Amino acid sequence: MRTDTAAPLERSRADEPRVGFLWALTSVLIPSAVFYIIPDLTGRLGVWGTSAVWFPLAVGFYFLLALLLRKVDCLAISRGQRLKVVLLGLIQTIGTSCFFFALTNAEPGLVSFVNNLTPVLATLGGILLLKERFRPAQALGALLVVAGAAMLTYYDESGSLTGILFMAAGSVFYAAHGLLARRLTEHVDPLALGFWRTGLMALAFVALAAVQGELVWPTAGGDWLLLALGGLLGPVGSIFPYYLALERWGVGKVTLVRGTMPLWVLVWGLVLTGGLPAPLQLVGGGLTLVGTVLIVVFRRRDRKTARIESTVAGRLD
Question: Residue 24: which residues within 8 A CB-CB, separation 6 or more?
């Protein structure tokens, strides 16, 4: 268990960019399928009704995971970090609410397009607030990822302005969540962070559903299956690997890798609906992959630079 007084982990996040990349990629590969689960559920159960079941189920999955990993003791959080974790849960509750409302009011493709703001805002925040650095090749890769994601999700029809505004607001809160989580992983186990973040969101959504009169149990077995699948893939399958990635890599780079989600949403659309990608989407997918490769390949120099800086600092001491 990590405490306030404990020194930061000797295993620096910057020392494990490869592992950080793999966890970041894991957080979007399969979880991107939730884009095709949420609209059906919110259409029948409402945003609050869906969330009031979705997140409590996810809390149960987190606890089962802690049991399997024999890390139940690690779920405890030191007193000095509790307020920050509460703030993290609040920020994510607002961001997720905006995301659900966006999917309720607009097509998944349009929502995914607007969500491209998240990696841009998170990267800027990492540079300005956390003093994270990008090598020139990585900066080029970042631009290619954002451009490719925009091409993948380009929406050439008139969409819902309401859905656009909800997702734009959600992107701001998602970026803020990433920046705060990046700091918290220095002191809080990623599993504990995911567990309490999801638990706080569950409490908030149950309360909101009760106030809105949407606190009802689903009656269809298919809804329960989708809720369980969504709770497993979203709050657990996406967020836990995300926190593990933030523990080892900068928030800007992690968020940019997660910015490839439109590519995987497209892949899931092909698998689930049989829809073939347009030529523009194929080009966008290629740019996204090339950009990701640039960000990751030049990680080796980041590791070497970090070691040199550490050695120099030790000699100066």
Answer: 241, 242, 245, 249, 253, 254, 257, 258
**pLDDT tens string 19-57:** 888 999 999 888 888 878 888 888 888 888 899 999 999
Residues 6 or more apart from 94 whose CB is under 8 A from it? Answer: 170, 173
Q: Report if residue 13 sits inside a domain.
A: no
Any domain includes 3: no
From CA 174, how far away is CA 185, in angstroms rounded? 16
Give whole-number Cα distances, 191 to 92, 174, 229, 303, in Å: 16, 19, 19, 25
Q: CA-to-CA distance for 209 and 211, rounded, in angstroms?
A: 5
Q: Which domain holds residue 290?
A: 19-316
pLDDT of 9 reads 44
* Range scoring the smallest mean pLDDT among 201-205, 224-228, 250-254, 313-317: 313-317
Q: Is 236's pLDDT higher than 80?
A: yes
Please check whether residue 8 lies inside any domain of the structure.
no
Is residue 2 assigned to a domain?
no
- The total domain count for the chain is 1
pLDDT given for residue 135 in this prediction = 77
**Listed residue (206, 296, 279, 241) closest to 26, CA to CA:** 241
Give the whole-angstrom CA distance, residue 33 versus residue 182.
25
Query: For 244-256, how does the pLDDT look when each residue is reduced to its tens digit (9 = 90+)?
Result: 999 998 888 898 8
Please give the share of the chain, as a percent, with pLDDT higher than 90: 33
Nearest to residue 15, comparing CAs of 241, 311, 307?
A: 307
